[in-house]
Amino acid sequence: MVTTNVRLVRPLGEGGMGSVWVAEHTGLHTEVVVKFISKEFASNEEALTRFSREAAAASQVKSPHVVQTLDHGVTPDGIAYIVMEHLEGHDLEAHMARGPMPAQEVVAIVQQLARALEKAHAAGIVHRDIKPSNVFLCDAGDGGLFVKLLDFGIAKGGNMPKLDGGTKTGAMMGSPYYMSPEQVVGSRELDHRTDLWSVGVMVYEALTGVRPFDAETVGALAIRIHSEPLPLPSRVNAKLPEAFDHWFAHACARPPEERFASAKELADQLAAALTGQVPNSVSFNKPGGRVELDFANAKTTLDAQLATDARLGLHTANQTTPGAGRSIQKVLVGVAVVVIGFASAFVGIRQIRRDPGTGTAATSAAPASAATENATAPPSASPPPGAPADGTPPTTSAGATRPPGLPPASPPVVAAKKTPKATPSTSVSAAPTVAPPVRTADPPPSSSGHDIY
After folding, report:
1. Does residue 245 share a domain with residue 96?
2. Considering just the CA atoms, what is the radius of gyration of the chain in Å?
3. 129 is an active site residue
4. Share of the chain residues as helix, strand and coil, in percent rounded to the nearest 5
5. Do 310 and 323 lie in a common domain?
6. Could you tell me the pLDDT band of residue 290, with boundaries at 50, 70 and 90?
């Protein structure tokens, strides 16, 4: 008996820190889960404080995608407990044991997990233990999955009980396989982006069936996480698009400032990389700051302009050509995909350049040199095709001067009494692909060393 309203029914599991039971809530007439702290830690002040922090953190994150905490207290014999909702389903770890998951399923799971993390991060809470066994997949009843984030036992931040002295510098907190580089060195300067790294590792594992970082010992694993070149997912699963390689390089960039800015951005760009879904906006890092492009507002502005032209009787080609509105939307989607690919390639190449020994500098120098030669080469003595024999620049039908070397343009479609504006164009060169060093498989660490506290 825990309280007058809860009666224990059967044990559900047991770990180093305590045990979990299925119980009946006699007042609500429903099953709940009760988590007890182990008797060995019942008199340990730090362990008791962490236990209380778990209950407080979960209750502060107001999201349907976080397990609900119903009660917290101490039994008459001094054992701390937490009463939580009972979930039906299985965790992501068991789900991934079946093999690589379909891209659409991974995207759906990450989108829901991102909502939970957005709420936690907005409350100033960093989970610090994102891993497949802490992501629970509930049966939604219609064949779908509803995601719940579990176990805030080592979360930091928010309005929670303070630990005496805080977390010591050099103390590793989390599960080794999914720790960020800053976690493996025990840094106290952790923020929400350490959770985003962990999500990136989980997604890699879900889509390939193997972990991106593995080793026989925790020390060797820490070195791989902190220093070795990032693996390419498409080398493990050839069905994965190159866009996902760039996404993974962004999600698991070693410097936190080069990762995604938020869980929502991470989920949106994963959907774009795996399924072609274009988000309303994208943002990426570049020298000098962060750039954000808002495609939703751009389309809204364009639609409003077309509507205004229609009211004024300006029948443009877009209004007189069937399906022109859909064509404009396709152009916007195409531009969005190009920008996302360029941004991801920039971040991926920048990440690869940070790792010594890949040969990136030598590979990328050749295209740059060729571009310089082309830019500085003297013009040919003979006029280019389409240019007049006397050497005068050709003109378009609208009277605008065209650069030498370009073929004559067809007459543009112009609205009545309205001169079209010239739109500058930008060309983007494809970045060279650099093959990473071949990784060798190592046997996994023993399960007994899965968590480090």
Report:
1. yes
2. 28
3. yes
4. 40, 15, 45
5. yes
6. low
